[in-house]
Amino acid sequence: MLVTPGELSNDLMKKESENRIIPLCAAWFLPNDAEGRTGYQAFTSKHIPSARFLDIDAVKDEDSPYPHMLPTAEHFAEAMSDLGIKKDDDLIVYDTAELGIFSAPRVAWMLQVFGHPNIHILNNFRLWVDQGYPTESSELSPANHEQSNYPVPSLNPDKVINFREIKEIVREFGQEGSEGVQIVDARSPGRFSGAEPEPRPGLSSGHMPGSINLPLSEVLDPETKAFLASDELRKVFESKGIDPKKPIVTTCGTGVMAAALDAAMVAAEFGKKDDKRVYDGSWTEWAQRVSPADGLIKKS
What we know:
The protein is an alpha/beta fold. Helix content is 29%, strand content 11%.
């Protein structure tokens, strides 16, 4: 699933290939970004030549009150068509040089949920830039690519978990006969413990009872912000007491870093392939839909 800058460069230079190789920029910043940066600004400033840009705040469920929830299959197909992407294209999803691995896994996960067959994550754009591979600065223009006719796909329910399901899992945590589903939260320790505020005003911090805190930063190289090597990733997961034989649900603030943890587990071949799901609404939905009286928000 992961490709290095060198591997991507070699593939892009090949004159003949079974499928088109399309770099897909998935740049995104938190709403409280100190510099007020946006993903599209990062894309126009510097991107891989011939790259397209997908905005997770645009390709989303328009009817949901929660940020960038999965879009409908029809909206997804329309977005792919507008970007000129075809079903048989090889998509290489990547982030910003500023943040390193962050939002690209969310877009890669969305593509997987809707059954796009050929998806990779660049590990990562910061290394692409640092190693001197080509970039360009320009707006995204539909004139640069022909619109496609992407077929309306089916959603794979095995890769996503909704509020009702995860609430039942949390309620049953520790009870005899429960599935033993492990909930792994990618937010920072301060947000997880409740000591620090959430980036969205008015939203309580804290965590789901029984959940495990694994900040995204712990699966990334501290300098390059690329994913750690597979053996190092497995050591991190094991150090948190995560059992690869039991079901795993990843969560975070809005489903972005949760998808990154999911991608790290896939890269490390950790856990059962079909027993890992992402909580799409994550903490932003959870903290707005449970009440303090439920006892389902813990602070420690």
